[in-house]
């Protein structure tokens, strides 16, 4: 290496830029004339958080003077376990050991660390994920020394990767498979048979199924009588139980508290032992005040219903504005619209320059496989602002797209 050359990290060199860094570069143009500008690009909930959680944080400021226990304070453990049993109608015995339910500083940190404890060995080299996908999955795989395998999640397969699409030879070399239900960005929900297929493959080929279920309490009106299930439901009925499974949940979406950085992980006895071991060495603890506020949130379902209703109302509005244009459909879960506009980057730029509206190009959420990026034709629209902003933004979007002849 020449003296003037800086040392480089191979993992970082293999990572793509953040979708939002790419978006800033794409829209590095003079500010549009349209006012107000509205961002529908970032999936950061903006509904009012529950006041009881904010009050709890204020009342417990003194606890920031203490190191918190990494496996959770007693009230957090009790509330999280009760929520899992109540929400998914499962017996607590399947995650009975103390280390099987652990707090995390948001699902991002937890998902990243989960990849680091996935089974390894000379013949274990892959980690698979849906395509398009939450970009953290690829970063976690590369950091764990694995090669990402991108499984297209497109309209033809209901926006969920086909479990039979990977050969036995590839599955034998699999370390982990990331799945998200409800899916980001498409809102598809994984049902029982689908999850059962992935769990069967995880057991047969000895890989870890890592389930990102952070949107599971944000679902459409038509699912009120049958809310999305968890992979925990299916694993609880299988002979191997949770052995090859880790599931992660978060209060970011459920309680509109992304800044609390509070989530939970639950899984099999051995994998959660390894997860705790790594977290004790390399992860930050969730502050005691945050755990106390989180315990109140996991114990309260009323604020979640109110939060969900706000999203449902905005999806109603979007349906009335877009109709069947842009292949609009009501997402089963989550708060994103996944609109087919033909060229995601060009349309993203058009909406910004003509209407002052920021959306996220689907191309930035996908990886190119065999010369095709399955997100390239789509834009992701985050319905996170209040209804007043949605009533400005969505009709304005539709007018701009219609004027361009896009349907």
From TrEMBL:
Keywords, ordered alphabetically: Aminotransferase, Hydrolase, Transferase
Cofactor list: pyridoxal 5'-phosphate
Signal peptide: none
Domain annotation Aminotransferase class I/classII large: ranges: 38-383
GO MF term list: hydroxyacylglutathione hydrolase activity; pyridoxal phosphate binding; transaminase activity
CDD domains: AAT_like
EC top class, as a word: hydrolase
Top-rank taxon: Bacteria
Record EC number: 3.1.2.6
InterPro entries reported in the protein's UniProt record: Aminotransferase_I/II_large, LL-DAP_aminotransferase, PyrdxlP-dep_Trfase, PyrdxlP-dep_Trfase_major, PyrdxlP-dep_Trfase_small
Record-given protein name: Hydroxyacylglutathione hydrolase protein
Organism, as annotated: Candidatus Micropelagius thuwalensis
